[in-house]
Amino acid sequence: MSGVTALRRLAQRSLRTTNATFKQQPQQKRLFASDPNAPPKVNYPWQDPTNPGNWKEEHLVFVILGGWGVVIMGGKAALS
């Protein structure tokens, strides 16, 4: 029985120290990685198709990967 009570005391002590540690740390405000002074990005590439500089980075990745897919599949079709 003494082993169980020792484990219980250890668990309670570690819980108290963990809670105290979390309460002492200041809360960080989570922000996006973008520049707050940057011009706003468009939600969809077809809203401003002629200006890729206003697209979100995810849209550029999709367009680049799609372009590589077209090149690879076109090369595969041309060589077979």
Automatic annotation (TrEMBL):
It comes from the Eukaryota. Residues 15-50 are annotated as: Disordered. Residues 15-28 have a biased composition (Polar residues). This is Uncharacterized protein.
